[in-house]
Amino acid sequence: MENRRRVCWDSSCLIAILRNEAPHADVLRNIVRDAEEGNVRIFLSTMAITEVVRPRASSGPTDKAALERIINMFDAPYVTIVGHSRPVAELGRKFIWDNGSLHPHDSIHVATAVYAKCEALETCEGGTDSPKRGLLKLNGKCDGLEIRHPKFVGQTLIEKPKDEEAPAS
């Protein structure tokens, strides 16, 4: 068995990278770099392949040039695409029954993470004070799966405080 961390991303993570959305885009890019170095395997549901073309609450398709970068990511050696198979669909159905507020698309992302035995499903939707579609509220409630905002566990850069002045020359 491989020693890499296993995380699953829902479509909002890919969309955050496409749109360079703060605060998540930088964290996600660090996770991708960590994956390129062999420390993380990123799992995506086949649902993500179509959802990134026209994200929810979007008036039209994603810019083709930006989308091409994400399409290339689907073929990266550190990404595993998990098919919408019967076991995944049945897990998704179970999670909808157990958690009535779960949207069917989100249930497939949750089921993908559980099916692939990931440590967490990462999402950029919602916040701790106002979770969108209840995904973050379901943390730990779908076969114990951690549902969280993207989390980079590698080495991080420490930024100098903004009020700190540069030394005089």
Describe the structure.
This protein has 169 residues and is α/β, with parallel strands linked by helices. It has one domain: 5'-nuclease (Rossmann fold). The protein is 38% helix and 12% strand. The chain contains six helices and five strands. It has helices at residues 11-19, 24-36, 46-51, 64-74, 86-98, 104-115; strands at 5-9, 40-45, 79-82, 120-122, 146-148. It has a five-stranded parallel sheet. The protein is globular and about 40 Å long. The N and C termini lie far apart (55 Å). The relative contact order is 0.18.
Question: Could you tell me the radius of gyration in angstroms?
Answer: 17 Å
Mean pLDDT: 84
Encode the helix/strand succession as letters: EHHEHHEHHEE
Return the CATH class. Answer: Alpha Beta
The helix content, as a percent range, equals 25-40%
Q: What would you call the shape? A: globular
Strand order, main sheet: write it out.
3-2-1-4-5
CATH names the topology as Rossmann fold
Number of domains: 1
Low-pLDDT residue spans: 157-162
Number of strands: 5
Largest sheet: 5 strands, parallel
**CATH architecture grouping:** 3-Layer(aba) Sandwich
Strand content: 5-15%
CATH superfamily: 5'-nuclease
Spatial separation of the terminal alpha carbons: 55 Å
SS content category: alpha/beta
Number of helices: 6
Quick synopsis:
The protein is α/β, with parallel strands linked by helices. It has a single domain, classed as 5'-nuclease (Rossmann fold, 3-Layer(aba) Sandwich), CATH 3.40.50.
